[in-house]
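Structure (tokenized):
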């Protein structure tokens, strides 16, 4: 019998860690003793197919050695977080070489890369929870829960702000008022998204209380027993398979924020999407007018500055990174605008996103007055 030795983490330096074999290791030795990778290459060179356990062993080895220096021992970086970092940095860097590469990157390479990562995450989740997905095959059509999406959103925001302050602001073409307006939009959007995650809750006490009052509520028909979590919940609550709990008036599970949107945080969600879309579009406009030759255009009662001639946008790294970050912001704005349009349509029809497809067909067949969308919008923002 082999006895595993327990090491004191406080004795580790910032570059040392305890590996999967419970042995003391160093970050400089991450490329040493790669039996899993050696076995995989040997099978490839000998024309043998890679089996699933070979791939799983390689992923376990990479996941164990993917670390960053940290006081008290090197900390492990999750693979989904590392994938988000590589995805953002690779696309922004690749899109900064020329307009052709920029268009190809943000119209084909980045969507394809995210689709491949999404399918990989989905296959991993399905494999790890084979019994659950085998019992309920409808879950295969839903997005899996992973830290990749939320990490990709956070890394994208930090990267865009870093490029904005190190490359765009450095050109001294943006005045203080424009910078203040842009940062105000960013701060309001980030605050709303933080409140979406901070205020998310089932909206009721899922555990049944002892006493006659709770039993009377249950017998009145206002409460029911959830078939998934086996808890006493209101009839208007629905179960989220990703959060594994029920939420009152649940709208949907937002994978990008890794939380459920329900009646307690849906208004913060819509507000955050609105200001986030404005911040992305305004940031792209500031970056492109800095990297390109701008032009004044009269729009109704005001005049705005738009990029006009962008032939010199890739003359140096400062301009090219600014242009690539602007295109990346436009790419993000497409996602945000789609989510915002969905929320606005559901708000006007007075339904939740998961119910919109069914309620929409019923409303169209029965007709809908002009006054009803305004009433639904008023109830959404001013309900207690």
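Design, position by position:
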């Amino acid at each position: 019998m082999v006895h595993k030795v327990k090491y004191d983490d406080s004795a580790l330096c910032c570059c040392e860690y305890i590996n999967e074999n419970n042995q003391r290791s160093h970050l400089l030795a991450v490329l040493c003793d790669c039996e899993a990778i050696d076995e995989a290459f040997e099978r490839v060179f000998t024309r043998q197919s890679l089996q699933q356990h070979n791939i799983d062993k390689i992923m376990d080895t990479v996941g164990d050695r993917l670390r960053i220096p940290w006081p008290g021992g090197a900390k492990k970086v999750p693979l989904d977080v590392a994938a988000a970092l590589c995805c953002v940095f690779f696309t922004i860097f690749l899109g900064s070489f020329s307009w052709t590469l920029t268009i190809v990157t943000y119209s084909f390479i980045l969507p394809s890369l995210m689709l491949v990562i999404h399918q990989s995450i989905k296959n991993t989740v399905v494999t790890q929870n084979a019994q659950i997905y085998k019992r309920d095959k409808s879950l295969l059509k839903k997005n899996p829960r992973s830290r990749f999406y939320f990490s990709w959103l956070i890394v994208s925001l930090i990267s865009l702000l870093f490029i904005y302050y190190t490359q765009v602001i450095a050109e001294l073409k943006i005045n203080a008022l424009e910078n203040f307006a842009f940062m105000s939009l960013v701060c309001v959007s980030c605050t709303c998204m933080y409140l979406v995650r901070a205020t998310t809750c089932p909206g009721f006490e899922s555990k049944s209380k002892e006493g006659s009052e709770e039993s009377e509520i249950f017998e009145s028909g206002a409460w029911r027993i959830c078939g998934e979590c086996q808890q006493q919940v209101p009839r208007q609550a629905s179960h989220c398979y990703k959060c594994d709990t029920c939420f009152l008036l649940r709208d949907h599970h937002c994978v990008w924020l890794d939380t459920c949107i329900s009646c307690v945080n849906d208004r913060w969600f819509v507000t955050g999407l609105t200001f986030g879309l404005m911040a992305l579009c305004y940031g792209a406009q500031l970056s492109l007018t800095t990297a390109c030759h701008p032009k004044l255009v009269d729009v109704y009662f005001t005049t705005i500055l738009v990029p006009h001639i962008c032939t010199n946008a890739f003359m140096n790294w400062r301009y090219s990174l600014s242009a690539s970050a602007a295109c990346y912001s436009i790419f993000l704005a497409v996602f945000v605008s789609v989510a915002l349009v969905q929320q606005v349509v559901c708000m006007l029809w007075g339904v939740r996103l998961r119910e919109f497809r069914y309620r929409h067909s019923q409303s169209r067949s029965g007709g809908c007055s002009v006054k009803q969308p305004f009433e639904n919008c008023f109830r959404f923002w001013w309900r207690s």
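Reviewer-requested clarification: Confidence is low (pLDDT under 50) at residues 1-5, 206-219, 363-369. The two ends are 64 Å apart (CA to CA).
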